[in-house]
Amino acid sequence: MNKIFPTAADALADLTDGATVMIGGFGLCGVPEDLIAATVAKGARNLHTISNNMGIDGVGLGLMLEAGMIASHIGSYVGENKLLEEMVIAGRLDLTLTPQGTLAERIRAGGAGIPAFFTPAGAGTIVAEGKEVREFKGRSYVMEEGLTADFALIKAWRADRMGNLVYRRTARNFNPVMATASRCTIAEVEEIVEPGELDPDSIVTPGIFVHRVVRWTGYNKRIERRTVRGGGK
Amino acid sequence: MDAREIIARRAARELQDGFYVNLGIGIPTLVANYVPEGMEVILQSENGMLGVGPYPEAGTEDPDLINAGKETVTEIPGTVYFSSADSFAMIRGGHVNLSILGALQVDRNGDLANWMVPGKMIKGMGGAMDLVASARRVIVAMEHATKSGAPKILEACTLPLTGSRVVDTIITELAVIRVTPQGLVLEELGPDATVDQVRQLTGTELIVNEPVRRMF
């Protein structure tokens, strides 16, 4: 078993127009930079993206947006991206905003074979409009559907050739759940080690969820808000 | 003390030793600066971290280590990282003792609006709806009125809601107000505030049992 692909472009060879693609990351943290760049270079069209954010102008998922390859997007916060707003207002992109925990759980459920669930988040708000709302023990809950994707482009820290993954600090975020919810999960990692080198008790994503692994070393890892002690930014 | 410091200091008095707490962006983040000496409070950040430490020393920032406001932070001994799904299981499952967040509007039912202004830039709710839906206790920490002096505490929110009947307590630079089935109760006054001033800057009726004690 060897899931390692030589380049991101090789790993994305069968990504076709109209695919549904999950992309890991929270803001610009834990984003698969090389897989995003390779997707842009490939020039796939009409992608349906699922990702917590939309990068920022010119960085991360913002690059796919600028390339005009995104037809629809499901996310929880897109406040850093002006172009997205223009495209939504012009009717060129179908945006669905969903509470962040609901997004995470929809992906978790999708990956776990659960088609729908009820959550208290969004009950009594516009998020619940058009959805089934049910009472359990006197409280209102909104039905939300599980999400799956054709591809998940995720970022981990270390992998072995079997696709076992560990993450680093808060760069974990949505990556492990997205790994579970896709027909083809491609993990971009900083280091590849031999099977057995990752502590079996500490592996976060078991390799069964991961189909392809690519290594990338040219990380930009841009910081969105640099804050330091003493009040400096 | 400026308004933000008053609010953060007073909100910090709601903390208890051993609490797991989620702090929102803005004034709520400042609450971490006023945790009483000797009290251990663990900060939860919804992007997947328990045990948020102070901002890093300049030059030691780690792009893989940020809080939910996307600011660089540090870890403390005992910090743990987890996925977004686990993070919101903590939040939705009621395991987080206290959630302190900002607001655009709060009303007498405890309805909260803090994510969207129609006609303004599209941003999204992030984790706010999950945080208020089932945290064990939700405190709103905000300036009492808008910059132009318009009330933010209202009879009924006019902005799209983040959550319905979710707020327990409102802490401002002028007052501590508790949301009760009978209505909003003025429990404390800020350092220089008067009951008349609070009433004037509040857009709904307040229940006042004189004399009202001071915050500090």
SSE map:
The complex is a heterodimer of chains A (233) and B (216).
Chain A: H1 8-11, E1 20-23, H2 33-42, E2 47-50, H3 62-66, E3 70-75, H4 82-89, E4 94-97, H5 100-111, E5 116-119, E6 133-136, E7 139-145, E8 149-155, E9 158-159, E10 165-166, H6 175-180, E11 182-189, E12 191-192, E13 212-215
Parallel strand pairs in A: 1-2, 1-8, 2-3, 3-4, 8-11, 9-12, 11-13
Antiparallel strand pairs in A: 5-7, 6-7, 9-10
Chain B: H1 3-12, E1 20-23, H2 27-30, E2 42-45, E3 49-52, E4 75-81, H3 84-92, E5 98-101, E6 105-107, E7 112-113, H4 128-134, E8 138-141, E9 153-154, E10 169-171, E11 175-180, E12 183-189, H5 195-200, E13 206-214
Parallel strand pairs in B: 1-2, 1-5, 5-8, 6-9, 8-10, 12-13
Antiparallel strand pairs in B: 2-3, 3-4, 6-7, 10-11, 11-12
What does this structure look like?
- The complex is a heterodimer of chains A (233) and B (216).
- With 233 residues, chain A is α/β, with parallel strands linked by helices.
- Chain A has a single domain (8-215), classed as Glutaconate Coenzyme A-transferase (3-Layer(aba) Sandwich), CATH 3.40.1080.10.
- Chain A contains six helices and 13 strands.
- Chain A has a seven-stranded parallel β-sheet.
- In chain A, 50% of the residues are buried.
- Chain B has 216 residues and is α/β, with parallel strands linked by helices.
- Chain B contains five helices and 13 strands.
- Chain B has a ten-stranded mixed β-sheet.
- In chain B, helix 2 links the parallel strand 1 (20-23) and strand 2 (42-45).
- At the A-B interface, helix 4, helix 5 and helix 6 of A face helix 3 and helix 4 of B.
